[in-house]
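Two folds, back to back.
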Amino acid sequence: MLADSIGLALLVVLESLTPAERLAFVLHDVFAMPFDDIAQVMDRSPDSARQLASRARRRVQAAPQPDRDIALQRRVVDAFLAAARAGDFEALVQILDPDVVFRTDPGPVSPLAHPPLAGAGPVARRVLGTAPRFVNLARPVLVNGEAGALFGTHDDPIAVIGFTVVGGRVAELNLVADPAKLRHLTIEP
């Protein structure tokens, strides 16, 4: 499945695109479909399909590019979890990028949905506001090949947090608790 081969952060970026942008981008950039064919599928002009794909491509390319070093990613996640467990606001802020974004996806009808939160201070406060209840249940894992944390078991995940680590700091946190999406993630120890 396509979701197994791309990172959680990219999936979140793709979800932030409009449906038309996402369709044009995926059909052209992933499946190499010509814009004339995409235009027919979308009932638009080829130029319109090209513009949609181009806009989507710019947004995807602007997404933070994670550090590829899994050992570094794991050290950053371990430091994040240690700071959260200790309730150490300053240590948490130090491990977060100043422009960090925290997104939650609890599912389509959940009352726990929040808009994305940005900035090291606000994200650290949110994490420390909820961490005492949940952080001891978090186990470091790989989520779609990148460092993350699992709540629950591999066979029955309750939620995962995907971390995008850029320059040795957390640039994005993506908490996914939507059961439909959890089924499609690859979670490894």
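---
second:
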Amino acid sequence: MIEEKVTDDWREQVSRWLVASGCLYMMARGDECSRWDDSVDYANLEAFDYGDIPDERFVMTTWHERQSLAEVFWFAAHCAYHPTIELATVILDIAAAPREAEIRTLYNDAIKAS
């Protein structure tokens, strides 16, 4: 969730960190979310010297420019999958102020929704 402007360098560093940390499905929502989608794609390619990426290390990316957080969380809970690995959810919130309680509530509601 991107609520704050960031530099291109910072976005690239975070994208590389996500890929190196084992991220396999990245959903971007918020400010310049399509740039985050591209940045993680490029970081994944770079991690394998722009060659073949093994299935178990391929990072699926999506961006959700016009969707609410509730819609994105529902998608994450019910539609996001990786073909070879079971996913765990980690939420990265790039915002000026903490909002953990609100985010937990929205995500938990999305898990319960069918």
